[in-house]
Amino acid sequence: MNSLKQIAAIGAAMLAVAGTAHAQSQQAQDKQADQYDAALGQQAKTRAAKAAGQGISNEKFPNPPRIEDSYPLASDADRQKSSKDLQQTVVDLSALFNDHKQAHWNLNGPLYLPLHELYQEQADLYRKYTDVFAEREMSLGYSVDGRYRTIAATSTLPDMPGGYLTDNETLKLLIDRLTIFQKKTYQSMREVESSDPVTANKYQDLLYDVDHNLWQLRIHVKQPGGLGQDLPWAAQQGRDRTGK
Ligand SMILES: [Fe+2]
Q: CA triplet 153, 172, 108: central angle to 5 degrees?
């Protein structure tokens, strides 16, 4: 063997040694990674077992192979019916909120302070309910349209007049709008009460407050005929209840 061949053989031997060392190092790294994964897996199992014992986490259940959107109502037609009512309610509640703020700001007269505060309180309530009904609509799988342009274009409530208003004017304007809203909301509740009792239940909650607020507004403009006598409209209550 000449010297060149000797050098080549030595080089090849060195490469072989280096290759073996590299392979051994890679095996060691792989083993380390496997141990690390095993330790992580064990930690996850321990956490899941602990959570399962305490009943506090979804880790105790494996993920299902497929997660589908599921809606609580019997049919799409039922969902559409609820969604239509819910969208209208969101729009009208938003309008009611604005109407009460308009009255709250532009109010003049001797009843300024109590009415100013009452209108704010009632406006806050309608805003709170807007969120309840909007999120119910989302739960049923529909988006909500709460844009100002949509409120202006689709609300069933008449617009409030601009400019200053007397205390008496604000009462009559709000009673008028809230009465329209009350009738529409009773109608919505009846429409969904068998197909979507959860939404109907929220309408019941809302109507409790609407009836209450309407009574509180009407109190300011009632003129009883005298001590112990019926109020002027009491005789018409039977007719009013039928909505005719
Ligand atoms: Fe204010």
A: 100
Distance 171 CA to ligand 1 centre (A): 17
Contact 160, 173 (CB under 8 A): yes
pTM of the entire predicted model: 0.67
Residue 107 Cα to ligand 1 midpoint, Å, equals: 11
The Å distance, Cα 150 to ligand 1 centre, comes to 25
Amino acid letter for position 74: A
Which tokens sit at 83? 């969604």
- Domain chopping of the chain, boundaries: 3-60, 76-242
Rounded to the nearest whole angstrom, what is the distance from the C-alpha of residue 119 to the centroid of ligand 1? 9
Higher pLDDT, 11 or 219: 219
The CATH architecture one would assign to domain 76-242 is Up-down Bundle (1.20)
Whole-angstrom distance, CA of residue 37 vs CA of residue 68: 31
